[in-house]
């Protein structure tokens, strides 16, 4: 298949190698231990110094699957000092400008050369390896874009040693449009713009009370009648005492922002972007995730007092959103 004229310039970027991104910290036991706790890994080679000293490695080592995490940017997307400011993913923006707005990751293949020991400092480079021909898939029409990250251990004498590689591939595409039925086609007198609706939640017997409450503009939280504790999200049994004796209570809807994220990318309709999402700690002690409304993303601060505001979308979907409490 022949390329579009605009694709010629984009393809010239294939083979470009982007300079180093450095790790903020050396390989260290604290981060290894936390990783193992989160992932449920109990291999003593990673956490038991006494055991590891008796092995061929003569000390604890890092799990190979941590390779990518060592060089990630910080909380505010800031890379370690000395890192390149080049953006290897600029090619994705160029494809967006040509009408391919959506993205989905399809491959993430790690190759490990050896175990990493405590005290090593890593960096990595990125290469735009390939861009496929235009492909048609169930998701839509688009391009598979492949990056290869090369991870290096930096030695005090300035030498660098290859320790692993990561092949990362995404599909940048135009979302497929659902074929219309004959009835829909006959009902239309003129073409209309595509209207995207918010995805509806999965409703089951365990959480139906919550969504029924939203329709009534009540924030209902699951309650255990055996131990008198609240829990969220809803579950078949009490997470505190394992009782099946559950009902719900209507809570105040007031609380504070315990944590938050601001979604910038990918931009998925019909959501607005940037899209602030808060982890709200209610005054009653439980936490729930909800959208934040009525404030700019840069204004969000942990600890801000908020209250629920029920918002109806598409005429039939009522969601609990949270806004700042006005004095």
TrEMBL record:
Q: Where is the ChsH2 rubredoxin-like zinc ribbon domain?
A: 211-247
The record's listing under InterPro entries reads:
ChsH2_C (IPR002878), ChsH2_Znr (IPR022002), FAS1-like_DH_region (IPR039569), HotDog_dom_sf (IPR029069), NA-bd_OB-fold (IPR012340), Thioester_dehydratase-like (IPR052513)
According to the entry, every stretch annotated as the FAS1-like dehydratase domain falls at 14-150
- Boundaries of each ChsH2 C-terminal OB-fold domain copy? 250-310
* Superkingdom as given in the UniProt entry: Bacteria
Protein's recorded name: DNA-binding protein
Please tell me the species this chain comes from. Shewanella halifaxensis (strain HAW-EB4)
């Amino acid at each position: 298949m022949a390329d579009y004229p605009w694709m010629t310039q984009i393809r010239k970027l294939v083979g470009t190698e982007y300079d180093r991104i450095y790790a903020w910290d050396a390989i260290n036991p604290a981060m290894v231990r936390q990783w193992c706790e989160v992932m449920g890994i109990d291999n003593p080679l990673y956490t038991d110094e006494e055991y590891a000293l008796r092995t061929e490695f003569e000390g604890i080592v890092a799990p190979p699957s941590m390779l990518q995490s060592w060089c990630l940017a910080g909380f505010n997307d800031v890379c370690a000092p000395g890192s390149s400011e080049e953006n290897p993913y600029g090619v994705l923006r160029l494809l967006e400008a040509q009408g391919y707005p959506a993205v989905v990751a399809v491959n993430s293949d790690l190759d490990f050369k050896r175990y990493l020991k405590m005290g090593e400092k890593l960096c990595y480079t990125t290469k735009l390896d390939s861009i496929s021909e235009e492909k048609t898939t169930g998701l839509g029409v688009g391009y598979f874009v492949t990056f290869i990250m090369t991870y290096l251990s930096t030695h005090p004498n300035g030498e660098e040693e290859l320790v692993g590689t990561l092949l990362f591939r995404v599909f940048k595409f135009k979302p497929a449009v659902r074929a219309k039925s004959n009835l829909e086609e006959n009902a239309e007198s003129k073409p209309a713009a595509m209207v995207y609706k918010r995805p509806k939640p999965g409703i089951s017997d365990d959480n139906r009370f919550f969504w029924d409450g939203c329709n009534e503009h009540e924030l209902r939280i699951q309650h255990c009648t055996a131990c008198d504790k609240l829990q969220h999200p809803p579950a078949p049994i009490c997470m505190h005492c394992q009782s099946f004796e559950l009902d719900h209570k209507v809570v105040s809807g007031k609380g504070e922002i315990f944590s938050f994220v601001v979604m910038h990318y990918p931009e998925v309709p019909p959501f607005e972007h940037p899209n602030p999402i808060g982890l709200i700690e209610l005054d009653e002690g439980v936490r729930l995730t909800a959208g934040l409304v009525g404030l700019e993303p840069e204004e969000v601060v942990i600890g801000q007092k908020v209250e629920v505001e029920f918002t109806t979308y598409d005429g039939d979907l009522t969601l609990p959103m949270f806004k700042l409490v006005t004095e």
